[in-house]
User: Fold these one by one.
Assistant:
Number 1:
Amino acid sequence: MDVDRLQYLVLLALCLAVTAPLEALGSGVYRRPARLARAVLPIAAVLTVWDLLAVARGHWHYSQRLTTGVLLPGGLPVEELVFFLVIPVCTVLTYEAVTARVRDPWLR
Amino acid sequence: MPEYLVAAAVSVAVVVAAELVWLRTGLFRSRGYWITVLIVLGFQIVVDGWLTKLSDPVVIYADWAISGVRAPWDIPIEDFLFGFTLVTATLLGWVSARTAEGASKRRTRLDASAVPAAFDAAASRYDALVAASPGYHRALRASARRIGLPVGGAGARVLDLGCGTGASTAALLACAPHAQIVAVDGSTGMLARARAKSWPPSVTFVHAQAEALRQWGLEGSFDAVFAAYLVRNLAEPDELLAAVRALLRPGAPLVVHEYSVRDSLPHRVIWSLVCWSLIIPMGAVSTGDPRLFTYLWRSVLRFDGAAQFRNRLRRAGFTEVDSSTARGWQHGIVHTFHARREAIR
């Protein structure tokens, strides 16, 4: 497979790699999988539906050359679902690191 | 009509209303939340900038669906509203889920008292996992050499505390082949694996919790004590160190081989990366239970820094305390601590 088709996935993998060390700073994100799932899955579901509607309406489409071509039902590239899982996880990691790192209660 | 602009603006209104009217978590009053929004915004510019660059876009927008304002670079400004919705909704979910979490966390965490039982269950796969860790046995042998017994330990008695499946015992045997080695572990499962290997008659295995050593009443009877990957797992390390000191003959060495990353942020980060990318997934797949491995990760982060542990040894009455670190990927992560019971003058 052409390496270019992995662009989007690699970008998301980099997001995970860059934020992974934040786990050591906060009081735990990956360590609390049940809570993480409750935070991430509902929003991922809602945004996936939005994405499907937007693609159906023709708001945007995806480069076939820069995505793997693996499509979910409804024609959504699998990368989009991964995006909706990865970015919220990165967000929570950032939030936990910010609030845990600074002891000031004003920051919480 | 720029439908994406409308949808994105509505999504922001819905999320803000959800917090103010329904959830009321107080997230918007938290500085940490706004700092997070700014940090994520910074990353969004990089990631989204790459995805939407008009020279070679991953996502191609219909001109009629967007306002047409693109900044910075070629990012449609609608994407920032979308990003705000994503970040805020996620954090509202995270903060709301806080209360529901307490009860389940207590069940899934492993505490020090449950460690021997957890090792019982994992024992059968433990050797294979350890063998996959580059430099594991070499680092153990390097530490074992620090017991420094002359003539291969002839005539000496050496205690191997927390011998597990016998990896530390084998390292001791390699460095002191003529010594009498007493190897102790609190997990019957690990000990059964150790016993099943072939050992010379000079090696004996004993099932005991390290914490119960005081009851042995073997004052001053060992010429060296080796404790690999043990101290970190104890609820009361000071009690163990006091008991070990009593077991050593005056002037005899204690060598502790242990993870210690608290002194160094880069090594804490490396340790976390190695754990979450390799150790925890591999451990979970091969034993079916990730808890022992998340426990490993957590217990290492929690354990004394090298300087702290040297001070702990001194407080326990040891002298000539020093430490060195392992080579390879374990550099700065695994340490050898060397100390002596003071000699009688």
Note: The radius of gyration of chain B is 28 Å.
Number 2:
Amino acid sequence: MSITTRAAVCRVPGQPWEITELELDEPKTNEVRVKFLAAGLCHSDDHIQKGDAPMRLPVVGGHEGAGIVDAVGESVTRVKVGDHVTCSFIPACGKCRYCATGRQNLCDAGKNAGTGMFPDGTFRFHQGGEDFGGLCVLGTFSQYAVVHEFSVIKIPEEIGFDVAALVACGVPTGWGSAVRAGDVRAGHTVVIYGAGGVGSNAVQGARFAGAKNVVVVDPVPFKREMAEVFGATHTFATAEEAQDFVRETTWGELADRAIITVGILHDEVIANAIKVVGKTGQVTITAVGNGSINENPGMLIGYQRRIQGSIYGGCSPLVDVPMLIGLYQAGDLKLDELITRRYKLDEINEGYQDMLDGKNIRGVIVHEH
Amino acid sequence: MSITTRAAITRAPHVGWEIVDLQLDEPKAHEVRVKLMAAGLCHSDDHITTGDAPIRLPVVGGHEGAGIVESVGPDVQRVKPGDKIVCSYIPACGACRPCSTGHSNMCVKGLNAGTGMFEDGTWRFHEGDTDIGGFCTLGTFSQYAVVSEWATVPLREDFQDIPWEVLCLVGCGVPTGWGSAVHAAGVRAGDTVVIFGSGGVGSNAVQGARFAGAKNVVVVDPVEFKREMATTVFGATHAFATAKEAHEFVVETTWGQLADHVIMTPGAVTEEMVQAAVMMTGKGGKVTITAVGHINERAVHVHAGMLIGYHRQIRGALFGDSNPLYDIPMLLGLYKSGQLKLDELVTRTYTLDQVNQAYQDMNDGKNIRGVIIHEH
């Protein structure tokens, strides 16, 4: 039976998020309905609202979310009604080439992220006669959503939903940008550009992997201060200051790794990151935006540098999400400190304004029911 | 005692090579004087004459060479007079951070490649009062050269009968190409690999990819002769004249999953080629750039979203990420056992006087590799 849900939607880029009531279908085969308790305010949703990430509109925002399974369709095996779950913004089907070779971040089932369409060509959110997709086929800025069972991961009941929501995207994306895609090794010097909701976790990952120097570049004093909480050894407001420090502390050998987790990617930060890594160094690009690499091949060949694009930090959600929750439970990963402020769904535009003003590491929506 | 040697030098871009007599100092500490027997005509030397490799001029060309140690300076331990050696265009000191961590291709002693200056700030080649450097501190387009002992790779007993024209190629083109596939790209069994440019470097990337077990080794080269050599001799499974044809083939043969690796070994890399290479690379795939481009062109110009969504990587490769002291003897061993084709790389041999003709032949697409046989 179809239900009604309140959701934040984007109909036209440039307009604020609009709170509206949508009809939500019941789950079909291999689908589950989730009652969301919390949703993270990730920069990627803002890219949609600003028109930087072109996708099918109208869309229900939100791709970080945690809640309780409220109903299941036929043939669902991964979860049952009542299970606490977090959502993975990339599904893991477990049988495509990439899942089969340990790279669930590249799962072929993620292809509808930009439309919110289900594999049968239909949508679950509706208003009047109009179909609405959920971002990443999720739509966590809604009290309820129907999602594919490949997109949910069961979590322990004692984990807070606000913390669990972040483990769906920002935490593994940042952590993995250092540990998986970024290949940080013990003893490395690592420079991280941007210490927000993703970058803070790159800092934690780099430190946990044994980096000697974890150098953060962020213009916002609050984020630099928090970065030290997360394990940064040195923080700077500008790339130039970081470059000078890295040159000095490595005796000119420069950094082993650079990780780009800024809010909006641009050409200059990419050029800075390429310049800050030394021989055999790697630049990992995780941030989204309109940035390009623009170099003479000699910049890569002479020092044998490499540039790695990174989605989900190279993490496999079915393994890394529970692993990260385990590290949190053991006290080895700081997640509570990521949440700067909590908002009601009605306060979502204020939440994004706070993000853009540099006030938040991460804002979280706590859904009302 | 100083000796006289005939050498091909470049005094300025765009004027070609000039054959002159130079004075050559005797070797100082940790240096050896080599009687060069053969030198490979690599595209990198041509980049000097076109101005795409901005280096100190005048310069003695040549960074692929093999010969016999004529004399040694004090403290030399790696070789002795009479030893047959291959020159490595990047030295391997064995003591710096890159050498100590298995990356001898980045040895810090390679820092004077563009000046030919020795560590004490002096040069060994002279013309009157003018100091002349050797390219990569070698200068194999000379009958004799003084080089660092770190740039020499001695030959084992069972390699003594290998022809000079083959030996000189394992100092650069062979390990650079082979290593681009095997080490830098990391080709695995079952992979689909596309190689742009099948000349003196790319032909060895083809051999490396095939030897590493690639299922499809797809060559893109506009020259029919090179495509034919790639498929009939070096192990390419498919060859196309254009990137567009290769792209269509790769889409079809991988059911749209695209290539695991693209390796760029053309004469000069362009922006158009890099973009075609990225487009041809699938999820989790890698583009390995080995060839240099035009000095003022930012040929690596790619929107970051092209890397993020498919988790692609673009990397540079120097010397194919090979370690000269290990990989050069290893490759000669493969040659001796019949598993690596090196004779077939040498299309033509030339005398030193014919160096400009040889580069014309290279640019006309007539050679996989041309080699200078020095006269003594």
Note: The longest strand of chain A covers residues 31-40.
